[in-house]
TrEMBL record:
Pfam families: Choline_kinase. CDD domains: ETNK_euk. Keywords: Kinase, Lipid biosynthesis, Lipid metabolism, Phospholipid biosynthesis, Phospholipid metabolism, Transferase. Pathway: Phospholipid metabolism; phosphatidylethanolamine biosynthesis; phosphatidylethanolamine from ethanolamine: step 1/3. It comes from Caenorhabditis elegans. GO terms for biological process: phosphatidylethanolamine biosynthetic process. Its EC number is 2.7.1.82. This is ethanolamine kinase.
Length: 342
């Protein structure tokens, strides 16, 4: 994709009024797709994320996707990084082309297919294809071998106000979280760095809505690269494993993959990685380290959700969600430490 095709529009799309939103989108399309006849443009809404409004604009058989950012999401998402990562991923065939940006969002190409359901994600057929696509992503996109994951957690923490507006929230925060979350980040960072696990280009948010299946091509694609950056390969896998608990309401961690299923997934991942080391010893090492990376992923989203609890205008109980993730962080960390001590 050449940068010449990428356009910037001075427009804000409404998150609350559908009419205003569509009028602004039509305005943008007169420049982006001048051959489209405005009255014949159709809109379809997909929004399932807990931070964005996503819809498609179509004319005939052609479609483009508009992603409107939620209020204050720039506090948890590095929007400049998102565009850079997206363009890089599109170049290597891992993302739809990016056509342009407006003041509070992006316009991109349309990927055929439907987001998976949790039940499908568990199905061995899909499961193997997800492992394969993660392996392809990790093997294809170059990185500088460094990860900003802990830096990003600290950036979230800087955005967190120790005083919540509501007294009930304040009490809940005090009862369920440590006073020094920064110390938790440093503790897990120290442990992870020592493991010297490979750093690759990662999606970092492989939840069910971000995994699309094209039934005609029988292929898996990933969407939504808001959190894509170089990271530990094992973090991406561990983070994906945490997402089997679901995102609607309270996550149910009893739904996560069993040990055997995780082992099989890691085996598939290594099998599809470009000539990378694939042996029982490597699987065993990854499997042992997995708990620590699951803990790190839970901590990342716990701190993220605390910031969202103070900033998001979306009707979602971020504070309870943060607590659920923090509890899982503690459980996994404790389990990992007790395993390596025995």
């Amino acid at each position: 994709m050449s940068s010449a095709q990428f356009q910037t529009f001075d427009a804000d799309l409404s998150l609350t009024s559908q009419t205003d939103c569509e009028n602004s989108a039509r305005e943008i399309l007169t420049k982006l797709r001048p051959e489209w006849k405005s009255p014949e443009i159709t809109f379809e809404y997909f929004s399932v994320g807990i931070t964005n409004k996503i819809f498609s604009a179509g004319f005939g058989t052609e479609h483009v996707i508009f992603r409107v950012f939620g209020h204050n999401t720039n506090k948890v998402i590095d929007r400049e990084n998102e565009v850079i990562a997206w363009k890089q991923l599109a170049e290597y065939g891992f993302a739809a082309p990016l056509y342009g940006k407006f003041n509070n969002g992006l316009i991109c190409g349309f990927l055929e297919g439907k987001s998976l359901a949790i039940e499908q994600m568990r199905d061995s057929k899909f499961n193997m294809n997800i492992a394969k696509r993660i392996a392809q992503l990790h093997s294809s996109v170059p990185t500088n071998g460094k990860t900003p994951v802990f830096e990003k957690m600290r950036t979230f923490l800087q955005q967190l106000n120790p005083s919540f507006e509501k007294e009930s929230q304040q009490n809940f925060f005090h009862e369920n979280f440590p006073t020094d979350l920064g110390a938790e980040i440093s503790k897990i960072e120290k442990m992870i760095v020592m493991l010297k696990e490979p750093i690759v280009f990662c999606h970092n948010d492989l939840l069910v809505h971000n995994i699309v299946y094209d039934s005609e091509k029988k292929s898996i694609e990933f969407i939504d690269y808001e959190y894509a950056f170089p990271n530990y390969a094992l973090y991406d896998i561990a983070n994906h494993f945490c997402e089997y608990a679901g995102v609607e309401g309270s996550p149910d961690y009893s739904k996560c993959l069993t040990k055997d299923e995780k082992w099989a997934f890691i085996n598939d991942y290594l099998r599809f990685s470009n000539g990378k080391e694939h042996s029982d010893t490597r699987i065993a090492t990854m499997f042992k380290n997995l708990l620590l990376f699951e803990a790190a992923a839970h901590l990342f989203w716990a701190v993220w959700a605390l910031v969202q609890a103070q900033n998001s205008t979306i009707d979602f109980d971020y504070l309870t969600y943060a607590h659920a993730r923090y509890q899982q962080y503690q459980k996994r960390l404790h389990k990992y430490i007790s395993k390596i001590e025995h």
